[in-house]
Each structure stands twice: as C-alpha cells, then as structure tokens.
C-alpha cells in the first residue's frame, strides 16, 4: 500500500467577483456573482514508504494547497486522499501524530525558550517515551553538534541553526511522513549541504517518507530520485530526476545589465548574440526592466563563457548574474515538448 495516495484530487474555491468603489462594496454585500478557481484539479499521485519525492512547480501551481490537504488543514472538493491509509481530514489527530512539517520561513520551536526546552515540550505534545526520545537525541547529536545549542534561546539562533533544529524537531516523534517546504531557502552553500546530508541520513536511518517542495533544483538533485512537477493544479511530469537533469542540467541563465545610457541597445544586443552564434536554438532571450536581458543557454551546445566574452567585447556591461535554470522555465520547456 502506498504511504500517500492521491486519486483525482481537486480543490476548488468560490471567489466573489468584486466591484470597484464604495458603491461596488455595498453592491457586493448582496452579490451572487462568483467564479470558481481551480487550485488543484484531478491530481493523481502515489508515494511509497521511504521515498523522498521532489514536489515542485511555479508559484501558484497548487503545491501549497496540495500539501495543506495532505496534512488535513484543507478538505478536498473531490477525489480520494489517504496518508498512511487514513483520510487526513477525518482522522486529523492521528494524522498529525504521524507526520512532521518544516516551513522554511516559520518555526515550530518556542521563540524565547532554550532549544532543549522546545524539544522537551514537543516530546510531551507527541507523547514520545523517554527511551525513544533519548535514542533519537543521540542520533541527532551524532549528525549535528546539537549540545552546543541546547542552552541558546531560539531567537538567538542563526537561520541555518534554526533550520537544523526545526528539522530535528520534525523527526523527534518518529513520523511516518515529513513535509519539507523550502528547507534551505536563504541559506549559504555550506549550511545547505549540511541540511541536505541530515535529511538524507535520517531518511535512510528511519525510512521516513519525505515530500520536498522547493524552487532550488539543486536540492532536488541532491536528495530525490523522483520529481513531480505540477502546474495549474495538474501533473505535468512525474518521473526520474535524472531525466530532468539530463535535459536541463546543462542550462544556465546569464543576466546582463547595461548602463542606463545603453538601454536602447538591448534589442540590438539580443539580435547580435543570436546572429553571432550559429546554434541559435541553444540560446533563448528575455528582456526585463531596468536594463537587464536574460539569456538561457544550453551549455551542451554553446558555452556560457563564449557568450559572456562576446558580449563583454562588444558592449559596456554594467553588471552580470549567472543562475541555474528556474523551475518556471523547466515547466515552460516541458509544455513545449522538452521531456516528450
């Protein structure tokens, strides 16, 4: 039996079409002019015990709504949803006892209490027996030097330290499923690597099923063998992360900004780059505000440094940025047949 099962899951909202102005506000008090917003539509998915699945998509794709239904916060409009054989909204207390949740910008720890006191409170809330608690704390201390943080109030922890403690807290009661929402957001490379190692080790040791939502493709590559990409509430890809990496791992986005006096040269710059490189299909361009132009480059066909050297030789570059391809662009490429 799958640990998590979604079958034709949908969540629709009825939203009032509001009118403008004071008279419109008064009119809306009696209005029945509604529209239906489909946050999630006929989503089907199965996740086996012990899997780490990357659950990703652009903003507004329906990820958060789906996670809230899995945790029992929201009730589906239609379809079947079970977590560990239970319907979350009908068995909310039992479901909450067997899941853990980590949100990148929020904490489940008590802000003014030392870290160890937060762990002790969570132990009481989840009714973890003393021997299991001690065993888990020993495992965590082997992975992370937690003892140095025990006496520190949560409010004095750095973002990276707090995220490590939140992840420990989510595993404290031996949950069957953990939902990680942007666990490495805003962190530097070294602490990201440490958090990924902790998640991976705990998953292997405890066989915990993990659903990871993130906009950082490197998190998915480091932790997941399987990735589910959704957009507009439906699945657009469910399969191997290796296939996504092979298709898009060589892509990078080169962002170039010209001085204000050269803004009018942006169109000329795009045309010039496209004309110079014979593999024009390997470079896509998008112009943005404030003098920036974005080049998404497939490095299997065109080297990013060749494009950068060409631009630097012909134009007065004011600033540059180099980024991995975004989830939004991956979704766009999938729609265009990139993983067909």
Automatic annotation (TrEMBL):
SMART domains named in the record: AAA (SM00382)
UniProt-recorded Gene Ontology molecular function terms: ATP binding; ATP hydrolysis activity
PROSITE patterns (alphabetical): ABC_TRANSPORTER_2 (PS50893)
UniProt keywords, alphabetically: ATP-binding, Nucleotide-binding, Transport
Name of this protein: ABC-2 type transport system ATP-binding protein
Species name: Paenibacillus aquistagni
